[in-house]
Design a protein that fits this description.
The protein is 23% helix and 23% strand. It has ten helices and 19 strands. The structure holds zinc ion (2 copies).
Length: 348
C-alpha cells in the first residue's frame, strides 16, 4: 500500500496526486486526468480535462470524442499543475505513449503506464527517467519472457503470408498500436504491397500517417467489391473479428494472431489460430529490470501481470524496496488469463 502521506494515493477513481489535483489514467470520470496513452484501459471517457501528449491527440479524440477538452503536451516539457511539476516522457509502447513524472514537496514519482524497450518504428523510443519512486507495470514480468526484435518477427509474418498465394492471410492484432507497428515493420522490410484492413484498424491510421510514420499503402476491406479476389492478400483485423460474420467474405483464409501472449504455451491453439507470432508492446523481463535500475528509484511499486513476483525479485535479488500496488489495480486486471482474453483492451 502507498503511505498515507505519499505524493500519489490510490482512490476509487484511480491513482491521485493531490498536489496536482489530478488522476493518472483514472478508471472513472474525474475533473482532471493525466493520460499515459490512448489504450481503452488507460483513457476513459467523461473526464473534465485531459492532459496528454500531442502525438496521442488524434487517437484520443477518435476514441473519446472530438470535443473532449485536451491539453496537448510535448515530451520532456515541464508543466506546473497545481502545486506539482509534471512532465511526460516517451514510453515506447504505442504512438504518443508516455511515462508521467510528478514532483512536489521535494519528492519525485514516475508512473510508467505501459512501456517497452524494444525498437518500434511506429512510435518514439522509451526514454529512461529518474525519480525517487517508480510505479512500473509488470504485464510480462516473468523471466521466461524475452522478446525477439520486431523486424525478425515481421520477416516471419511476410514468409507466412507470401507462402500462401492461393489464400487470404488474416493477421489478428490489437487495432491500436500492434497493427500499426506490424505495418511499420513491413515498410522497414521494403514491403509496398497494399495491405487490407478491418474497419477498426483503418479508423486509426490517419493519426499515424499525420505523425509521419512510414507505412505501406492500406485500404479498408469494406471498400472492395463484394466479389473481389482476396487470395494472396494480407489482411489485418482485431481479435474481436475472429470467427465473426466479418470473416464470411474470405473463402479459406489462413489465420494468425500476433501478440506477446502467443509466447504462452497453448494460447494459440486454445483460441483457434493456425499460427502465432510473438510480438509484444510491453517490456520483457530484462526490460523491466533495466528500467527499474535506470530510474534510480529507492522505492518501487508494481502493477499488472506478475506484480508480486517482480516486486519480490527486486527486493530479494536487487535489494530495492519494492511491493505490489494492490487494491483496485490487482482487482482490475492482475490476472494473466483475463489479460490474455481476446477482448482485452490492452495492446499486449
Ligand atoms: Zn495497459
Ligand atoms: Zn497499453
Amino acid at each position: 500500500m502507498l503511505p498515507t502521506d505519499a505524493l500519489l494515493q490510490l482512490t476509487p477513481q484511480g491513482l491521485y496526486c493531490e498536489a496536482a489535483g489530478a488522476w493518472i489514467d483514472p478508471w472513472r470520470p474525474v475533473p482532471r486526468a493525466l493520460i499515459t496513452h490512448a489504450h481503452a484501459d488507460h483513457a476513459r471517457p467523461g473526464c473534465g480535462e485531459y492532459w496528454a501528449t500531442a502525438s496521442s491527440e488524434g487517437i484520443l479524440r477518435k476514441r473519446l470524442g472530438a470535443g473532449i477538452k485536451l491539453i496537448p503536451v510535448d515530451y520532456g516539457a515541464l508543466h506546473r499543475i497545481g502545486e506539482a511539476r509534471v512532465s511526460f516522457h516517451s514510453a515506447g509502447h504505442v504512438l504518443g505513449s508516455a511515462q508521467i513524472r510528478l514532483e512536489a514537496g521535494g519528492e519525485s514519482w514516475l508512473v510508467s503506464g505501459d512501456y517497452k524497450r524494444d525498437a518500434d518504428p511506429s512510435c518514439a523510443p522509451f526514454e529512461p527517467v529518474q525519480a525517487d519512486v517508480f510505479i512500473t507495470e509488470a504485464t510480462f514480468g516473468w523471466p521466461i519472457y524475452r522478446w525477439r526484435p520486431g523486424i525478425a518477427v515481421a520477416r516471419e509474418i511476410v514468409q507466412w503470408w507470401q507462402n500462401a498465394p492461393e489464400r487470404a492471410s488474416i493477421l489478428f492484432c490489437y487495432a491500436f498500436g500492434k497493427a500499426q507497428r506490424v505495418l511499420a515493420e513491413l515498410a522497414c522490410l521494403g514491403i509496398s504491397d497494399e495491405i487490407l484492413l478491418h474497419g477498426a484498424v483503418e479508423a486509426l491510421m490517419a493519426p499515424y500517417r499525420e505523425a509521419g510514420v512510414q507505412l505501406p499503402p492500406t485500404r479498408a476491406v469494406s471498400s472492395l467489391e463484394r466479389k473481389a479476389d482476396l487470395s494472396g492478400r494480407l489482411v489485418l483485423a482485431p481479435p474481436a473479428a475472429h470467427r465473426s460474420v466479418w470473416m464470411k467474405r474470405f473463402k479459406t483464409p489462413q489465420t494468425a494472431f500476433v501478440s506477446g501472449w502467443m509466447a504462452v504455451r497453448g494460447a494459440r491453439r486454445r483460441r483457434g489460430y493456425e499460427r502465432g507470432f510473438v510480438l509484444s508492446d510491453h517490456a520483457d523481463w530484462d526490460g523491466l529490470l533495466s528500467s527499474v535500475r535506470e530510474s534510480g528509484a529507492r522505492q518501487v511499486y508494481v502493477t499488472h501481470g506478475n506484480s508480486d513476483g517482480l516486486a519480490r525479485y527486486l527486493h530479494e535479488v536487487e535489494g530495492i524496496a519494492a511491493e505490489p500496488l494492490g487494491g483496485a489495480f490487482a482487482a482490475e486486471r492482475g490476472d494473466n488469463e483475463a489479460a490474455a482474453n481476446n477482448d482485452a483492451p490492452d495492446g499486449a
